[in-house]
Amino acid sequence: MNKKRYYIVAIVLLLTLQVHAQKDSVHYFQSQDGIKIAFTDVGIGPPIILLHGFINSGSSWNKSVVKEQLVAQGYRVIAPDLRGNGNSEQPEKSVAYQNDAEVKDVMALANHLKLENYMALGYSRGSIVLAKLLTLDDRIHKAIIGGMGSDFTDPNWDRRIAFANAFSGRAEPTELTRGAVTYAKSIGANLKILGFLQDYQPVSSATELGAIRIPILIVCGDEDLDNGSPEALQKMIPQSRLTLVKGDHNNTYKQANFAAAVLAFLRSH
């Protein structure tokens, strides 16, 4: 092997090792109220923040094709553990989750990383956090709302209230909530905190969503009936478009068809 080829192989090996090390690295910063927030930061290129769903963490994106493809196609992928989840601090006081605290954490993360602008992708409850974020942070120049219909715009959404009551212990689990409560217990999640996350979940009104003026993709599984009508949500956001892909609520974000829709949108806007 000549010296030139040896050096090329060595550089490629070093870069590969750095990427794998980076994938395993968890970083921390203190948010606006002193709560410690964990995040991963992988890849080089335009930044995109990924927001995970309920009873989950940023590591859930490691199961997805979309994160892998975003990194491979030249994006910087930042995935926080929203407060109360994963490696982030998990305060057991309700005040820590009030007043759109999770939304403020994402803005504080962008400040911490000195992002002048960024894109964002949410899925399930992460899309609810993202929707509110879109009304507050003008650094976002395009976004993807995944696995979500229009029901979250109702402050008295019956599904949210049912989950809040079940996780807080104010009511016994029902057919709607029993599976989620059982799963949360099986992984050792803090039910009290999950109750707070439902009690103080961000709400974005149709009027607020109607003021958004950036390109938005709404992408849902064609069998996803959990959170209302994605068609109704699309009508609320002027510059949005809707794509339906094959899948249900729990698995769509992991799939190649979801990744393909996201990447096609990012390339076209």
Structure description:
The chain has 269 residues and is an alpha/beta fold. The protein has a single domain (27-158, 208-268), classed as Alpha/Beta hydrolase fold, catalytic domain (Rossmann fold, 3-Layer(aba) Sandwich). 39% of the residues lie in helices and 17% in strands. It is built from ten helices and eight strands. The protein has helices spanning 3-23, 65-72, 101-112, 125-134, 158-168, 178-186, 191-199, 206-210, 230-236, 256-268, and strands at 27-30, 36-42, 47-51, 76-80, 118-123, 140-146, 216-221, 240-245. It has an eight-stranded mixed sheet with strand order 1-2-4-3-5-6-7-8, with helices on both faces. Helix 4 links the parallel strand 5 (118-123) and strand 6. Helix 2 runs parallel beside helix 10, helix 3 (101-112) crosses helix 4 and helix 5 runs antiparallel to helix 7. The longest helix has 21 residues, at 3-23. It is globular. The relative contact order is 0.13. Residues 6-22 have low confidence and may be disordered.
